[in-house]
Amino acid sequence: MGRTKITPVMQLYLSTLQIEDYEEKNINSVNNCEENYNNSNTSNSNTNNSNSTNNVNKRFKKRYGPPKFRYKYLEAKIILYLLQNCQIYIPLQTLRGIEKLQEKIMRLIFKDDDNKRLVEFIWDESYTRGKKTVILDNFNKASSITLVVHQDVPEKEIDIAGLHIDYLINKMSTNDGIRTTPSWGYRWTFNHNPFNINEHYIIKLHTGNDIRIFLFKKLQSYKEIKSSIETTLNVRNIKNFKYKDEIGEFIIITTPHELETAFKYHSKNNKLELWYTGDEGIFHNNMKDLIDFDSE
Questions:
Q1: Nearest residue to 188 via CA among 213, 214, 162
Q2: Which of the four pLDDT bands, split at 50, 70 and 90, describes residue 82?
Q3: Which of 44, 45, 237, 257 has its CA 20 to 30 A from that of 189?
């Protein structure tokens, strides 16, 4: 048998997705779904464990149904799922920027119409010709897509996805010589949230062929930073990190003082680039609730 390809994704459930004048809302009531689940669980207490598990999965799928946002970070691609399972594939190369407008609201900004042609729509058979025309007409007119994230999604998960997407968009645009919109952190500093980039560190962490973006307060200790990274990467007792000095040599970090030195002399705009090369036998890509695994 061939080996199944596993692709990690970051997933955020949405309450509203808006493309120009076209809008889709999550029609499922959280409270009603919870109540229905509890009632079902009580009335079917004598069913076997298998049926009970299936009921739980169905309830939670209904509770957190489309629209939803998926970011396949190994493919540099965003997928938006509409209510009737239409899938909109958006390569990051088509975006000029990603902005955080409020705590749970973000916006994807397109470069131009030529780049928008790279966006692909996969339609479910339930979509009529008229419904497709309405969505496509609004998409063709839109310069951006606005996403309102579900109230149950922690803001930290939104920031992790946003920071990583923002980093890749800026990297691609710099390589192409294109000026981008203000970055995720910059934009948020001058808006409604107390988040201030000057009070935080951004750690860009290389893990093999993968890159992770972490956000830490400056007051957090080395132990807290190390523990948070271990939890996110699902590894135990990281021995050390590495960074590059001014001549490109790798320097090992094993103590709080060494990390402080790295930040003081080798960070740029409060961002420090680190490397971690752990034992591949115990390394797993795991972002808790943020990451699903799609078998392709």
A1: 162
A2: very high
A3: 257
